[in-house]
């Protein structure tokens, strides 16, 4: 099985929780999916557990969105492979805090 290096961009509040300053790099086995990225991210930065997805259901939190190559992939199954540019590390995987209100 081959491995991949994925760049992850977190929103400012999650950077604070994780104690990081810039992009986060995670190393994982392929295929690269949102679920595998989140698994490694939460294992590497345990303070993030429960902030991005519900620990009981593993579903994405309502005000969190995922972007791959400028496309909102938040509503795709978490086990669906991410684009090759994300898996190759040439483009980052974005985790974004959604805004609500009027």
Number of strands: 5
The strand line-up of the biggest sheet is 2-1-5-3-4
Report the oligomer: single chain
Number of domains: 1
Helix content: 10-25%
Low-confidence stretches: none
What is the overall shape? globular
Major β-sheet annotation: 5 strands, mixed
Between the first and last Cα atoms, what is the distance in angstroms? Answer: 48 Å
Describe what this molecule looks like in 3D:
The chain is α+β, with helices and mostly antiparallel strands. It is built from three helices and five strands. Strands 2-1-5-3-4 form a five-stranded mixed β-sheet, covered by helices on one side.
Blueprint (SSEs and pairs):
Elements: E1 3-9, H1 12-18, E2 24-29, H2 34-44, E3 64-68, E4 71-72, H3 84-87, E5 93-97
Parallel strand pairs: 1-5
Antiparallel strand pairs: 1-2, 3-4, 3-5
Quick overview of this protein structure:
Helices cover 22% and strands 25% of the residues. With 102 residues, it is of the alpha+beta class.
Question: What are the defining features of this structure?
Answer:
alpha+beta, 25% strand, 102 residues, 5-stranded mixed β-sheet
């Amino acid at each position: 099985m081959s491995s991949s290096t994925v760049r992850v961009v977190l929103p400012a509040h999650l950077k604070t929780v994780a104690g990081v300053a810039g992009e986060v790099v995670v190393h994982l086995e392929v295929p690269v999916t949102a679920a595998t990225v989140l698994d490694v991210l939460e294992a590497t930065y345990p303070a993030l557990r429960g902030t991005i997805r519900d620990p009981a259901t593993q579903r994405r939190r309502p005000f969190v969105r995922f972007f791959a190559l400028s496309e909102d992939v938040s509503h795709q199954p978490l086990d669906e492979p991410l684009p090759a540019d994300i898996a190759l590390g040439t483009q980052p995987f974005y985790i974004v805090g959604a805004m609500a209100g009027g």
